[in-house]
Amino acid sequence: xxxxxxxxxxxxxxxxxxxxxxxxxxxxxxxxxxxxxxxxxxxxxxxxxxxxxxxxxxxxxxxxxxxxxxxxxxxxxxxxxxxxxxxxxxxxxxxxxxxxxxxxxxxxxxxxxxxxxxxxxxxxxxxxxxxxxxxxxxxxxxxxxxxxxxxxxxxxxxxxxxxxxxxxxxxxxxxxxxxxxxxxxxxxxxxxxxxxxxxx
Length: 200
Description:
Oligomer: single chain
Number of helices: 9
Strand content: under 5%
Helix content: over 70%
Number of domains: 2
């Protein structure tokens, strides 16, 4: 079953094969959770949105066009669910991401490297855990629309056209918004690292 395409699996599920749905959940668990942890800012919130996303996949499976790709559809649902949750909870200069990260201890690292989520094991060095927390803090300070596009383009490595499909925006908007997102992340990163150094 692991050889079958996502689209074939969703088709099998619509035909009554429950194991096909379980395979899709398993196949996307890691990628989607990583995206959602960065988007939501917490593992617990990400887990909730992950569950809501696959509930929606179950409810909407009958309407999925198997001529389309499953992954952008899945991430569209997840981004919308995450956005809704963040909205509910809220009621309560350009920099190349391949450029070196400024600051002590960051030699050789780029902003793209920082986008990789670290789920530290107990024996992992504390500085890696602290770096991941700082990255999350920087992402949390970004406007929602910029955070989404940055995570999809750089973290999930989706193409511009896939990002446009997921966020339901024109291709030109993807490019201009991504440009703004890179600058926003760079500003946030510099602010949180400066704050972190002054706290020490």
